[in-house]
Design a protein that fits this description.
The structure holds two protein chains of two kinds. Chain A is built from 18 helices and 19 strands. Chain A is an alpha+beta fold. Chain A starts with a helix and ends with a strand. The N terminus of chain A is likely disordered. By secondary structure, chain B is an all-alpha fold. Chain B has two domains: 118 residues, no CATH class; 206 residues, MetI-like fold (Orthogonal Bundle), CATH 1.10.3720. Chain B contains 14 helices and no strands. Chain B is globular. Classes of the chains: A alpha+beta, B mainly alpha. The interface between A and B is large, with 63 and 60 residues.
Chain lengths: 531, 334
């Protein structure tokens, strides 16, 4: 019986991985269930992996493995001289998925673009509130309602966005998941049948894979879109096996029940690398973990004090203990995979003696301060409590007494915004659209003081540079300004920049063509399984 | 009998209202604002926050929210999840069969193994067999479920490769759910090997979930048997020359089972609690995992609705047990 069972299990694993009847099936052990299949309704990466990545396309897309924007459903675009009009030339002959619940009668055209954005923009649109609590969080979060004045159909294959102000990151915004293009014809069919909410349950798009079925919390099935505009995929079926426990995902990968899986436990990475059937890809995450001083409260309003404290932090020890090697010391507020990263910036070297001296020079003695530790795990900070303890120890060596405080996550985010906040806050950020503005303006701009600028830092020189960069359309000119801004940042030291995470992606050796996404998504376009 | 039934039924109403108040208020007592959690590090403007508060009805006084919730509830509307935007009842009904299937298998295994073990331990009281069974029961009872589940996966699935790691059925098989019970659906699908695959996926989670109830049932059976074995009628049966198997199986066990049945009834709660961890380890798509996730996301509607539905099920099970007792033992009716 034992042997029979072993044999059956081996046979099963073998057939799953080779796929039945010669069809190639890629099994991805995903870390959670999607909230739904309309990416514009949600903000979680898990949801995007299951919806926008396989099923949909966007006008503009990120080139796989980079944060560069390349043409997607738009073949090209032009920006008017005043930067207020962006005109997209749409790709012709793009087919929507034909499924057992929808058969398209026409190709993708301008009506689909208008539908996809107007449902988010116009409050009287029939699909604006098609599910209870639809709040279009990313569309609003990226300030699209203030930015977009109108969207016009010039002809069937030309669409013009009219903006209220010039905004360089706008193109990158359109590559984000919320900007996925839906079929208007399908939406119309659903409203005739009175089944509006199916738009969020049974997705139809133009993407590389088409939706087949979802068993909640268990399995999502897709198959390759036979008429995909960018060529049919080398694999025939794509299956997401939802497996929330990291250790269990690892076992499934080893047992051959899946080909590829995200988010391994840092402690397991070495043993995964050592396994002959597996390989582990790695890449710096598009994120930054930092300690933000409150630059409005003495003595942290003095840049010299902040700099002295930065020099007291032993980042290497933090990388070892908190990131267990899956991290990289940060010197800039943007990660190294992002364009305009200024590698010439010199980090404040770890030097407790010099730090002590600088504090004395600044007239600071017997300093007591609070350090806030986040209650949750984040890619940019897997263990904030431990990090705070290490910082506490480091600061005590230069005569600064630290009290560690923490709150429930929602409360933490809210309270840390206060301009008169007591203490320095551990927090971080993961990029949305690969644009430096998405880090520098959101986290350090004057407009964000009292909000996402936890350092409450408003520096005219810095803000001038990033505001100017936002209005330029040339990436090179923008990059120069951002590089300069990073020098100002380092000089003024509103944060101690701690680390960027390193993301690992273990997979079976036979998986080929997988490109890690610096934006943190998981997409399987172009992935194959070697025979 | 009818009067007894009606009085029991009437008792359910205040209990249900009590549970609804607890379910409604507890999740709100926890610090943490679902809207801020949705926004995460990104945050949102005060204006937008107010807008969303109004959208979800959180801007109203608590008692108004409660009243609205109960009004909807009486019309069968359990609300909509803030996270998935899907109706709570629909989500519950999709996931619940998986939990029932696993719990039923676990309780069947616990009874089928626990009762005989308890009987053997009692009959061989003091022997090495008794010591071993009771020692194992103590270990089982104190087993940390999460660790135990992972250990079994690593050993049986990882090292030996005998059982699948997680899930309800091999990904090879794909058929639309009819009953939601994988064992039944796999048979109905007519696909060769589907039932076997579903069964093999049930083995480890069933063992993990059955461990604690099994230990409890074995210990309870042993002590109940010991009590009964000392009774006069057992001695009488023995002295009139009945074979030991008949004495133990017919006369002793039947009487010893009454407290055991009570214990089994009480395991419903233990199973649901254990299901939370077991489902998480084995990626089992049931309500346990669903509830835990929603607590972390402060998904008020799901936590409230889920708690009420689970409470309603436990209350109905209790009612049935009460009524059955009344039927079996007339003394309880009066």
């Amino acid at each position: 019986m034992k042997n029979k069972l072993t044999f059956a299990a081996a046979l099963l694993a073998a057939t799953v991985l080779s796929g039945a009847a010669g069809a190639k099936t890629l099994v991805y052990c995903s870390e959670g269930s999607p909230e739904g299949f309309d990416p514009a309704l949600y903000t979680a990466g898990t949801t995007f992996d299951a919806s926008s990545k396989p099923v949909y396309n966007r006008l503009v897309q990120f080139e796989p493995g980079t944060t560069n924007t390349v043409p997607g459903l738009a073949e090209s675009w032009e920006i008017s001289d005043d930067g207020l009009e962006v005109t997209f030339k749409l790709r012709e002959g793009v087919k929507f998925h034909t499924t057992d619940f929808f058969t398209p009668s026409r190709d993708f055209n301008a009506d689909d673009v208008l539908f996809s954005f107007n449902r988010q923009l116009q409050e009287d649109h029939p699909y604006h509130a098609y599910v209870e609590g639809a709040s279009w969080e990313y569309f609003n979060g990226m300030s699209m309602p203030d930015l977009v004045k109108s969207i016009e159909k010039v002809d069937d294959y030309t669409v013009k966005f009219v903006l209220n102000r010039p905004e360089a990151p706008f193109i990158a915004n359109l590559a984000m998941d919320f900007a996925s293009i839906f079929s208007k014809e399908y939406a119309d069919q659903l409203s005739e049948a009175g089944n509006l909410s199916d738009l969020n349950q049974k997705p139809v798009g133009t993407g590389p894979f088409q939706f087949v079925a979802y068993q909640p919390d268990a399995v999502i099935r897709y198959k390759a879109h036979p008429d995909y505009w960018n060529g049919k995929q080398p694999i025939d079926d794509l299956v997401f096996a939802i497996t929330t426990e990291a250790s269990v995902r690892q076992q499934k990968l080893i047992a051959g029940e899946c080909h590829i899986t995200p988010y391994p436990n840092p402690a397991d990475i070495e043993s995964l690398k050592a396994n002959e059937a597996l390989k582990v890809d790695e890449q710096e995450g598009l994120n930054v973990g930092y300690l933000a001083y409150n630059t409005k409260v003495a003595p942290f309003d003095n840049a010299q004090v902040r700099k002295a404290l930065n020099m007291a932090i032993n980042k290497e020890a933090i990388l070892d203990a908190v990131f267990q090697g899956a991290g990289q010391a940060a010197k800039n507020p943007i990660p190294p995979t992002m364009w305009s990263y200024n590698d010439a910036v010199e980090d404040d070297a770890y030097d407790p003696e010099a730090s002590k001296k600088m504090l004395e020079e600044a007239g600071v003695s017997d300093l007591s301060m609070k350090v806030w530790a986040m209650p949750v795990q984040r890619p940019y900070n897997p263990n904030a409590r431990r990090m705070a303890e290490l910082i506490q120890e480091d600061f005590s060596k230069v005569g600064v007494n630290v009290e560690i405080v923490s709150y429930e996550w929602g409360e933490y985010l809210e309270r840390s915004k206060a301009e008169d906040r007591d203490g320095a806050v551990l927090l971080g950020w993961t990029g949305d659209n690969g644009d430096p503005d998405n880090f520098l303006a959101v986290l350090l701009g004057c407009d964000a003081v009292g909000g996402s600028n936890r350092a409450q830092w408003c520096n005219e020189e810095f803000d001038g540079l990033i505001q100017k960069a936002k209005t330029l359309s040339s990436q090179e000119e923008r990059a120069e300004l951002y590089e300069e801004a990073q020098l100002v940042f380092k000089r003024e030291a509103p944060w101690a920049t701690i680390a960027h995470s390193v993301v690992h992606m273990p997979m079976r050796k036979e998986v080929t063509g997988y490109k890690m996404d610096p934006l943190g998504g998981h997409a399987f376009e172009g992935v194959d399984i070697a025979e | 009998m009818l009067r007894f039934f009606i009085s029991r039924l009437a008792l359910l109403i205040p209990t249900f209202i009590g549970v609804s108040i607890v379910a409604f208020s507890f999740i709100r007592l926890l610090p943490g604002d679902p809207i801020m959690l949705l926004a995460g590090e990104r945050g949102m403007s005060e204006e937008r926050y107010q807008q969303l508060q109004a959208l979800y009805g959180f801007d109203q006084p608590l008692f108004v929210q409660y009243f609205n919730y109960m009004t909807d509830l009486l019309q069968g509307d359990f609300g909509t999840s803030i996270v998935t935007k899907r109706p709570v009842l629909q989500e519950f009904l999709t996931l619940f069969p998986a939990t029932i299937e696993l719990s039923l298998c676990a309780i069947i295994v616990a009874i089928a193994v626990g009762v005989p073990l308890g009987v053997i331990a009692a009959v061989r009281r003091g022997s090495w067999l008794d010591q071993t069974v009771m020692g194992a029961a103590l270990v089982g009872y104190s087993m940390p479920i999460f660790w135990w589940g992972l250990l079994l996966i690593i050993f049986f699935s990882g090292i030996l490769g005998w059982t699948p790691v997680s899930g309800r059925i091999s990904l090879l098989y794909f058929f639309p759910p009819v009953t939601g019970f994988m064992l039944i659906d796999s048979l109905l699908s007519g696909q060769a090997g589907a039932f076997k695959s579903a069964l093999s996926h049930l083995i480890l989670p069933t063992i993990v979930l059955a461990t604690i109830p099994l230990a409890v049932i074995a210990r309870q059976t042993r002590s109940a048997m010991l009590e009964v074995l000392g009774e006069d009628y057992v001695r009488t049966a023995r002295s009139k020359g009945l074979p030991p198997r008949r004495v133990i199986g017919l006369h002793a066990l039947r009487n010893a089972l009454i407290p055991v049945v009570t214990t089994i009834g009480l395991q419903v709660g233990v199973l649901l609690a254990g299901a939370i961890l077991t489902e998480t380890i084995f990626s089992w798509p049931g309500i346990g995992k669903w509830m835990v996730d929603s607590v972390f996301k402060r998904d008020y509607a799901v936590v409230q609705g889920g708690l009420l539905l689970i409470a309603a099920i436990i209350m109905i099970v209790n009612l049935i047990v009460d009524v059955l007792y009344g039927l079996i033992n007339p003394r309880i009716r009066h």
